[in-house]
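I am still getting used to backbone structure tokens and would like to learn alongside you. Please make up or recall a protein chain and show it to me in full. Would you write everything just below, so we can both look at the same thing?
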Amino acid sequence: MIVGLKFILIFLIFVSLPSFATTLKMGIFPYTDPIQIIKIHNDLRDFISKNLGVEVEIYTANSFLQYYENTKNNHYDIIITPPHFGAIHIIQGFVPVYRYDRFLSPVYVVREDSDIKEIKDFKNKKIALSNHVSISSISGLVEMSSEKIDIKSTNIVNTKTHQAAVTSVIFGESDVAITTHTPINQMSNNIDMSKIKLIEGEIKVPHVFTLASPNLDKETVVKLKTILKDFEATKEGKEFFTKTGFLGYTDITKKDLDSLIMFIIETKKFIE
């Protein structure tokens, strides 16, 4: 059983097959491990599949950069992606569908017994990132810079996931982890929350984008928008948004895209 599961996960992450009219690939950025990604999005996938009348397969990648490249190269038909990546992909021709109806702010995690109280206290501290190109990392580093902290001289540690970054703080391997509320909510059953305290960031950016590949026909995109709004109203949809904290779907606006310009500039330093 374990061997079979490992095979399925390897297939989902790495295998790229030609798209057929009866199959759509839903790419989800690797903000946590593949098992959790599949578990969290399984009801959403099933609802889209049932109402579009096609098989929908969940794909992810082994890094944010690989996911960005896979998306850019049209490996996926439906994309669930960080907003700064999404804004870049829209420029590249991807079609906006929705974003989650809330805003993202960086959240800084320190040990409960730490004397760190605010962002200016991060100077000369060891900072753990979930990934150097995640929106939490980019926005957190931008906010630290605005507090006159020299990022180039800061001890930055790049971990693989939000939970790994937070865990490194709990075990004293880092002083601060940069994340957001959504992954904190999703990892609350896996870590001892009594051992950490949160420092809220003030920067706000639009939440995760859902986009359609430019290769997806217009009729399917229109149906997808209706299906996602219908899913939001179902029992499964309500549970999905409650558990994830995503709240619901809303349209991606020009104001959203304009607000991401400085983050796009920072992101392009790593991806180009």
